[in-house]
Amino acid sequence: MIIMQIKEGEPIERALKKFKRKYEKTGAVKQLRARQFFTKPSVKNRLAKQKAIYVTNMKREEEI
Question: What is the pTM of this model?
Answer without folding.
Answer: 0.53
